[in-house]
Specification:
The protein has two domains: about 90 residues, Phosphorylase Kinase, domain 1, CATH 3.30.200; about 190 residues, Alpha-Beta Complex (Aminoglycoside 3'-phosphotransferase, Chain: A, domain 2), CATH 3.90.1200. The chain is α+β, with helices and mostly antiparallel strands. The strands form four sheets. Strands 1-2-3-5-4 form a five-stranded antiparallel sheet. It starts with a helix and ends with a helix. Helix 3 runs parallel beside helix 7 and helix 4 packs antiparallel against helix 5. About 40% of the residues lie in helices and about 20% in strands. It is globular.
Length: about 280
């Protein structure tokens, strides 16, 4: 983008005069920038104009997390569009990978204590670039089947996932209720895409989370996601459980929850995730 377009964004967001823009890493569906203005530094996300719904969903999730006053996240400053570009302005944080994993566990558990009566979200949002459907349902197994596993199964079928894996997934969906006979989760506010790349620490060591795919669901889905793609520090899990112990049977439900993210990665990034789907299905009793 040229200077005039950046200045248009700064004017609309009331950020003063643009002094510099520096590309930074982050995001598969958008570009990320450090935007330096006469008022200070900001984090800017830009995308194609037609991709604005992804930025809107990001902003709504961050607002919901910020409203809990439990864990830090970048509270949106402004969102809008130019003739070609959609944009989201967030506060700028100096981040590192070193900080209090214990505090992260405690604060996430407290965020999960923010609940509502129904599973779902106000609207469809996104997990990565995939639509994430959120029709509100009172029954968790019905929600997870119809709004999470089934859409991913359909896309995986279109993308050529092996027939035997598709058949196993159907069998899991058919008997999903059996995993929740003695366990009735509450509808907790979830980050929704909680892997290590969406967590960092501020200069004070305080944790901060970002790039959410929020909805109200079983808190175990967030924990199960943290155990994919490298996992979190042991102090995180100990602190979470000390603040709000996980229910009996989590280890049996965990692979069912991890399937959603593995299917999504298969659908977004290709066949290399098929082996992980097979291995995870083998863990489900």
């Amino acid at each position: 983008m040229n200077y005039s377009e950046w200045q248009q964004i700064a004017d609309e967001a009331q950020l003063g005069s643009v002094e510099a823009t520096i590309a930074v890493t982050g995001g598969d569906s958008h570009q990320s920038w450090r935007l330096i203005t006469s008022h200070g530094s900001y984090f800017a996300k830009t995308a194609l104009k037609r991709q604005k719904p992804l930025l809107v969903a990001d902003a709504e999730g961050l607002k919901a997390i910020a409203a809990t006053h439990t864990i830090d996240c970048p509270n949106p400053i402004a969102i809008g569009e130019t003739s070609k570009t959609s944009w989201l302005i967030l506060p700028w944080f100096e981040l590192s990978q070193q900080g209090s994993a214990q505090q992260l566990g405690e604060q996430l558990a407290n965020m999960h204590r923010h609940t509502q009566p129904h599973f779902g979200w106000l609207t469809t949002n996104f997990i990565g670039q995939s639509p994430q459907y959120n029709h509100t349902i009172d029954d968790w197994a019905a929600f997870y089947r119809s709004q999470r596993l089934l859409p991913q199964w359909r896309w995986a079928k279109e993308r050529g996932l092996a027939h035997d894996l598709l058949d196993q997934l159907v069998q899991i969906m058919d008997r999903l209720d059996s995993f929740f006979i003695d366990y009735q989760p509450v509808a907790s506010l979830l980050h929704g895409d909680l892997w290590s790349g969406n967590v960092a620490y501020q200069s004070s060591g305080k944790p901060i989370i970002f790039d959410p795919a929020c909805y109200y669901g079983d808190r175990e889905t967030d924990i199960a996601m943290t155990e994919l793609f490298g996992g979190f520090a042991l102090d995180f899990y100990a602190a979470y459980r000390a603040t709000w112990p996980l229910d009996v049977g989590y280890d049996q439900r965990k692979p069912i929850y991890q399937l959603y993210h593995l299917l999504n990665h298969f659908n977004l990034f290709g066949g290399s995730y098929a082996a992980s789907i097979r291995q995870t299905l083998a863990k489900i009793e």
